[in-house]
Amino acid sequence: MTRVQILTKTTLTILGIYAVLTLCNSYPGGFMYRRERPAIVPEILSLSAFTVLAALAVYLMIFNNTKFSKRIAGPGEILRPGTQRALLVKSLRVGLVVAGLMLLPRSIPTMVKIPKIFFLIRPALNDIIVCKSVPDILRLSHSEWFTNIYGFLRAILALYLIYGAPRFIRWQVKHSVRQESNIEKTIATKCAGTNAERAENE
After folding, report:
1. pTM
2. Per the count of CB atoms within 10 A, which of 71, 129, 176, 189 is most buried?
3. Where is average pLDDT lowest: 124-128, 137-141, 168-172?
């Protein structure tokens, strides 16, 4: 891969993460239906659309973005395999840390709530076991539960990205090397087939 292709790949990965987070944040099923009995058909349709869009974002921008990045960046001077790995690791690490820092301000309210939960969970469990009643702190609408769970997961993701996302970077590098070798094999096979056809025609 070229330098521009690697930087494009990193940008696509970060945009893919943000695309999934944006889809989760705008998922209508958690906010539109605040009644006790939500409409089933719109809920299923919104969940299906969300799942399809999230799967496309993950597949095209995170999981299978090597071909896409090559099409966007175009040809150029191909770097050595060791240089490719080093540049990909550095660019991913910097990009993911920046993405985590951008998510952190929106995750601070959730992070402030987390210590509060540890002090409230024991009395809540006592009320459920002893008094056999659900305390008021657990009587949230399904949209409020969705918002709280999403905020909690976003806070964990922000901290993981700021930490450097080491496992994700290792997986991306291994997957990129595998994709690159598959692309090279495909090109070599096509070239061999073309040369064989030319030889037969001659």
Report:
1. 0.71
2. 176
3. 137-141
